[in-house]
Fold this protein.
Amino acid sequence: MKFHLDVNRVVRIVMVVLTASFLFGLGGFLWQQSRTQYLTLAAGDSSGESYILGSALKKVVERHYPRIRITLLETGGTVQNLEMLEEGRVQLATAQSDILAGPSARIMAVLYDDTFQLMVPQNSEMQHFVDLRGKRIALARSGGQYQSFLRVAEHFGLHEDDFHFVGSNDEAADQAFLNGQADAIFRVRAIGNPAIQRLVQSNKVRFLPIEQAAAMKIKHPAFDPAVIPEGAYLGDPPVPAENLPTISVHRTLLARDNANADAIRAITGVLIERRQEILQEIPARMTEVRLLLVRVRQPDAQAAFGPEPHPGAMSFYFKDKPSFLQAHADFVGLILTIGLMVASWLWELNRWMQKQQKNAADEYCNQVVVLIDAAQDVNSIEPLDAILRDMLKILAAAVHDLDEGKISEESFHAFRAILQIGMDVTRDRRVILSTSNTAASAVPVS
């Protein structure tokens, strides 16, 4: 029996299969592109910084990408956020970097730095963390803050049974502390956190140092040595009264590994490139939260701990990387190899220049933040006028650096947003002082 191969028929079959595969792939691609992506973000307490930032991010993302819809979910904090992410009940979550995430978590960005803040009553005799043995701690026995506290305690030879914990949540713990039902209160929050600010304004608290951060980092790589600056919460008298050593950890934005890569890329792009729009969505009275946008950044690619980057986020961060040439470097000739080396050098040079430009803008932002703190503490108009003049000098210097190419337009716009906040705060303070002086002068002398 002879076998006759009909070449033309085989070619036709192959062409039909290839065409069908192409049309099927194209149809799937177009369907995926036209599909609305629904994502849920586990963002912690509704009064917390990460929830407020998440709410502003949601508005800007949906404005520019109508096919991405984000639902914000109020939760009990990092531990619950990570559990929900791992179980697939949410696709996005905010979390402290010192709390171990599950295998399904992928990092998108670092939002800002949380700081370990330990406070005791003004009249307390306690001076160091080890003095907390046997004391009542205003801290819920759940969530990331609780785990962070126990890690610090473990370093000093203390254990969970060495403390009595008070309060079922942050609000209840705060109230217990103010009512004298706790000997100390512990928080992992950004410096300037409104809830901690309210505790300071009660004139009932004093900060304690958390020392040996560098030693703790050996066992807990997410821990970074940090300082709560003198006067961070109040300038006169300063609270804290001196620079206090402590620990900071990153507050990160995570995505589940199977979250749509295009949606994650779009969200990452909005977070990094549209900070000014996000800032405008945060109420003006929340100055501390607005300033946190300066800290949003790409995760450290060299970090040896924590979740891997999400492919969608990485495609944004490395969108200008000449990946095709790098992937085929072994198969090209000498000329293309040299060209690739030159391109890589130029790319690294460009990254270095962008980093220098951002560092210059960040320095101007930090100067303005210092002036904002000063403006809120003065009680006469003359210093406010001097602060406004200093802000204008900073603006002039920044404009000069922009013209010289030392600051990028993106960084300059971010700086301008911070400067506008500073000028608004200073002018508002001037109006308040002027009104107070006018009212005082109008009171008749008896």
Residues 1-8, 322-329 have pLDDT under 50 and may be disordered. DSSP finds 15 helices and 13 strands in the chain.
